[in-house]
């Protein structure tokens, strides 16, 4: 390979999600000092010319490299953990991080089964010597608190029995709350929180259908003014749609680290759960296979590992 | 300690046959029923139900329901259920009562261990095809709902660790709120409904050390007390001193005109295999009369016979 090609390959090896270990080994392993200097000079994104005449690393470069090398390790560690511990640790991080991470709490509280959420709460006791509801109510101060505490405390009925009259009246109650949301914020509305945090999933799905009949609109979209409510409804009713959207965001070019992290989180937590549905939804919505998108965006062992996980659930 | 007295030898088949005999002929032999069921623990009662089903292809519970009546029937029905199932039934009964009894829910959340409470929630879902949280939420409003839904949803950490600094700061938060009569503040509900029992007891101790009055006395204050205040008071009591709480409940239940049979049955049946003995001791200290004597005096009939058997009165 000509040097310019090698430089291009190497740059690519550092640019996607994860790192292309094989290229790094073969190319860097044989490059002499002059070749490595050409790499530095040819990559103004990574290196800049210092006033004292050497090509100096951007702060970002080192940090970014660390993140990309760690991506595979984090995926493995997350994958080998017991799902309860995994969810408990993610919840703890999310509580500490603040509003930008609340969606993770919604995912855990709403897309897991009742027994899985209970298991996560147990693991939380063991790991942190507090209950998840203690920490959620103590550290979350904003308007999302009421909803989030209620969601993480839920132990929903898992049977399929639904009372259509209740579903109808609750759809009406939600429609009312949405209509009056300029006077009373949706997240402050006790009825909204009660319905979404205590009812069984089949019941909420029935409420969704009834809402469509009453208003000819989709409940999750109408709750968009409080994004977290939209996410809650989506995770409860159609998690594959929610996760597909998150994955698409994560796989876009130029997104920030926070959004890209979702790729590992979603694939690892869903590999044994809803992966088949997610694959199908992704294909339908974006016209390209999820695994292909991952092949194009990620590299190295990280990419191989994810593609393996995505292929599950047949 | 339990008050239930069980015999040294036990045969589920013999008991099932004896019960069958009790149903035969004119009327029912209630004495025999009390004699057997009043002296069997939860495991034994379950085995008797299974033996009865196998031997006679009939549900013992349904048979009891149809052959017995009144206070006695309700007491026997609730007694023969598995403890978690019984608590689920009691919770549902309390929710549907016209004179709503929220204390039942508070007891479940605050007296039972987290695992016991979880078993009750599972039993509730199995029986009623709803979650307990759903039903509590939809049967309540306002401040009481906020408190009860939080109490019912919690899965408390059950460790003994205490954070002294936190106990200090949260005792102060509670004191401030009570002083300002801000009983329904989010902070009060947060603390009482999420902290572990060990942590809460440390907080209550700290409260008394700092402010001279116990939090329970402070909660009731001098003026008229709202339902919500009563609920908070029950919550603190159940966490801090359940024996005292139950002893008071028994006394009120016996003294009430016509007696509060639901409460009496509930306290005696849910604690007979646990700590009714301690509760009796507190009862005696507070009232200078034993629970056995109080029940003997104020209650009558087969219902009385069952209660006396459960509270360990020796014949």
Keywords:
heterodimer, A: 314 residues, mainly alpha, elongated, B: 315 residues
Gist of the model:
By secondary structure, chain A is mainly α. Chain A has helices at residues 3-13, 21-30, 33-41, 59-80, 83-97, 102-111, 114-128, 132-139, 145-152, 164-179, 190-198, 201-215, 219-222, 227-237, 239-251, 257-270, 275-286, 290-297, 300-310; strands at residues 47-49, 55-57.
Report on the architecture of this protein.
The complex is a heterodimer of chains A (314) and B (315). With 314 residues, chain A is mainly α. Chain A has helices at 3-13, 21-30, 33-41, 59-80, 83-97, 102-111, 114-128, 132-139, 145-152, 164-179, 190-198, 201-215, 219-222, 227-237, 239-251, 257-270, 275-286, 290-297, 300-310; strands spanning 47-49, 55-57. Chain A is elongated. Chain B is mostly helical. Chain B is elongated. Chain B starts with 11 loop residues before the first helix and ends in a 5-residue tail after the last helix. Classes of the chains: A mainly alpha (314), B mainly alpha (315). Chains A and B meet through helix 7, helix 8 and helix 11 of A and helix 8, helix 9, helix 10 and helix 12 of B.
Reconstruct the topology from this structure.
The complex is a heterodimer of chains A (314) and B (315).
Chain A: H1 3-13, H2 21-30, H3 33-41, E1 47-49, E2 55-57, H4 59-80, H5 83-97, H6 102-111, H7 114-128, H8 132-139, H9 145-152, H10 164-179, H11 190-198, H12 201-215, H13 219-222, H14 227-237, H15 239-251, H16 257-270, H17 275-286, H18 290-297, H19 300-310
Helix pairs in contact in A: 1-2, 4-16, 4-19, 5-6, 5-7, 5-8, 6-14, 8-9, 9-11, 10-12, 14-15, 15-16, 15-17, 18-19
Chain B: H1 12-23, H2 30-37, H3 42-56, H4 60-67, H5 70-80, H6 83-96, H7 103-110, H8 114-128, H9 132-139, H10 142-153, H11 164-179, H12 186-194, H13 197-211, H14 215-220, H15 227-240, H16 242-255, H17 261-271, H18 276-287, H19 291-298, H20 301-310
């Amino acid at each position: 390979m000509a040097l310019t090609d090698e430089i291009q390959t190497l740059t690519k090896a550092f640019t996607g999600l994860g790192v292309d270990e094989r290229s790094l080994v073969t190319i860097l392993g044989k490059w002499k000092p002059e070749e490595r200097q050409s790499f530095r000079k040819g990559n103004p994104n990574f290196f800049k010319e210092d006033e004292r005449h050497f090509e100096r690393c951007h702060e970002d470069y080192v940090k970014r490299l660390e993140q990309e090398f760690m991506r595979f390790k984090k995926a493995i560690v997350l994958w080998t953990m017991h799902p309860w511990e995994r969810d408990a640790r993610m919840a703890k991080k999310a509580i500490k991080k603040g509003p930008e991470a609340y969606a993770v709490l919604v995912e855990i509280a709403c897309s897991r089964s009742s027994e899985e959420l209970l298991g996560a709460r147990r693991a939380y006791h063991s790991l942190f010597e507090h209950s998840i509801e203690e920490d959620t109510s103590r550290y979350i101060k904003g308007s999302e608190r009421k909803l989030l505490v209620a969601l993480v405390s839920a132990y929903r009925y898992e049977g399929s029995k639904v009372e259509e009259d209740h579903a109808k009246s609750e759809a009406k109650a939600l429609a009312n709350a949405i209509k009056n949301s300029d006077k009373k914020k949706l997240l402050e509305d006790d009825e909204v929180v009660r319905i979404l945090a205590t009812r069984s999933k089949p019941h909420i799905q029935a409420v969704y259908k009834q809402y469509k009949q009453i208003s000819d609109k989709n409940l999750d979209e109408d709750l968009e003014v409080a994004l977290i409510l939209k996410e809650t409804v989506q995770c409860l009713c159609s998690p594959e749609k929610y996760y597909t959207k998150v994955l698409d965001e994560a796989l876009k070019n130029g997104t920030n680290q926070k959004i890209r992290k979702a790729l590992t989180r979603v694939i690892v937590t869903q590999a044994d759960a809803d992966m088949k549905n997610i694959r199908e939804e992704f294909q339908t919505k974006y016209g390209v296979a999820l695994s292909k998108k991952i092949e194009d965006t990620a590299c190295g062992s990280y990419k191989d590992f994810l593609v393996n996980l995505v292929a599950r659930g047949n | 300690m339990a008050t239930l007295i069980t015999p040294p030898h036990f045969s589920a088949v013999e008991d099932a046959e004896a019960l069958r005999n009790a149903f035969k002929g004119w009327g029912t032999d209630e004495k025999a029923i009390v004699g057997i069921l009043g002296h069997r623990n939860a495991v034994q009662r379950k085995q008797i139900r299974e033996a009865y089903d196998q031997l006679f292809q009939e549900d013992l519970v349904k048979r009891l329901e149809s052959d017995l009546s009144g206070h006695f029937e309700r007491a026997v029905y609730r007694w023969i259920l598995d403890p978690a199932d019984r608590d689920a039934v009691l919770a549902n009964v309390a929710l549907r009562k016209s004179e709503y009894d929220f204390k039942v829910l508070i007891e479940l959340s605050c007296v039972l261990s987290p695992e016991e409470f979880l078993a009750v929630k599972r039993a509730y879902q199995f029986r009623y095809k709803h979650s307990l949280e759903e039903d509590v939420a939809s049967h309540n409003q306002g401040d009481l709902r906020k408190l009860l839904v939080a109490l019912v949803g919690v899965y408390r950490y059950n460790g003994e660790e205490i954070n002294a600094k936190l106990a200090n700061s949260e005792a102060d938060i509670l004191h401030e709120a009570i002083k300002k009569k801000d009983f329904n503040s989010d902070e009060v509900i947060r603390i009482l409904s999420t902290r572990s029992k060990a942590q809460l007891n440390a907080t209550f101790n700290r409260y008394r050390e700092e402010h001279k009055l116990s939090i329970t006395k402070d909660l009731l204050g001098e003026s008229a007390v709202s339902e919500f205040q009563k609920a908070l008071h029950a919550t603190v009591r159940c966490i801090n001193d359940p024996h005292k709480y139950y002893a008071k409940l028994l006394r009120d239940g016996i003294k009430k005109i016509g007696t509060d049979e639901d409460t009496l049955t509930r306290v005696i049946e849910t604690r007979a295999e646990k700590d009714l003995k301690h509760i009796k001791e507190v009862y005696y200290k507070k009232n200078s009369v034993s629970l056995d004597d109080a029940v003997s005096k104020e209650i009558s009939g087969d219902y009385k016979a069952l209660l006396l058997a459960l509270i360990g009165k020796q014949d």
